[in-house]
Prior knowledge:
- Residues 76-103, 132-166 form a coiled coil.
- By secondary structure, the protein is of the alpha+beta class.
- The protein folds into 2 domains: 43-187, Orthogonal Bundle (Helix Hairpins); 209-342, CATH 3.30.1330.60.
- The chain has 7 helices and 5 strands; from the N terminus they run H-H-H-E-E-H-H-E-H-E-H-E.
- The chain has a 5-stranded mixed beta sheet.
- The longest helix has 97 residues, at 111-207.
Amino acid sequence: MALGKNRRRDRGVDYWPGFVDALSTLLLAIMFLLTVFVLVQFILSREISGRDEVLNRLNSQISELTELLALEKSGKTDLEDTLANLQSSLSTSENERSRLQSLLDRGTGAGDAANARVGTLTDELSQEKQISARATSQIELLNQQIAALRAQIAAVEGALQASEAKDQSSQARISDLGRRLNVALAQRVQELNRYRSDFFGRLREILSDRENIRIVGDRFVFQSEVLFPVGGNELDDAGRVEMDKLASALLELAQEIPAEINWVLRVDGHTDNAPLSGSGRYRDNWELSSARATSVVKYLITRGVPANRLVAAGFGEFQPIAEGDTPEVRSQNRRIELKLTER
């Protein structure tokens, strides 16, 4: 009966770790989404900046071509006015020539003067015709230049429209890529969380009888006294027994996790804040915590756990879970933490 009560009590306490797992998962997912959002915004801003530079260059070219077209139109107008004036002068000269020729025909006695006047007007008329022909040729050339400018403007407008269409297509592809990446990240997080929950559930079943082994957040915590002798880094007999259980659970779980999930088991070594004596093997708590984490990793490798799935880290006394200098507090801080995470 006492055993049944203890198990019911344990099952009641197990809700808290699940809540912490869910909360940490939510925070990780939010961090992933924020990272993806910042990355997509950065890529999008670079794409838009490049499009803006192209659009500015095209707008500058259009402005220059428009100015040239205005100048050409102004020159054409001037030539047309000159041609109109020449044609008016030509018409006046022809009328004067007709009048003089009429006077000559009537034999008024001023025939010689009239003939001289007719010759002069004829020469002037010939010169004006030549000027008119040159003006017509210049107008034709201007019309050709205007047509070429219009063709260039049409080409620039076509390129501008194509650039805008390409920019819209790029933005749509970026948006779709961000959406698919978010979905993939969410799926990966959910899968890893499911296997993490399975892993901790199995460890909880295997190691539930030990009071000095507990779960803190998303980590499985062994007190150092369970695994190591005081001040040492070599696993004792009891520690090797516990690591055998851990290796069995890891090997069983590794067969179920898909290959595309790049998971690792991080082994973190922690000590209390008591300084080591200078005559010991280790100079400080950094070296001791790192050596203990490395010993756990090496032992798990000897039990068949792949080396690429293990990470050892030492934190010394700088990551305590309890504050104070009492023996009980220091005992809590001397620990090995296991965390299943993604590389």
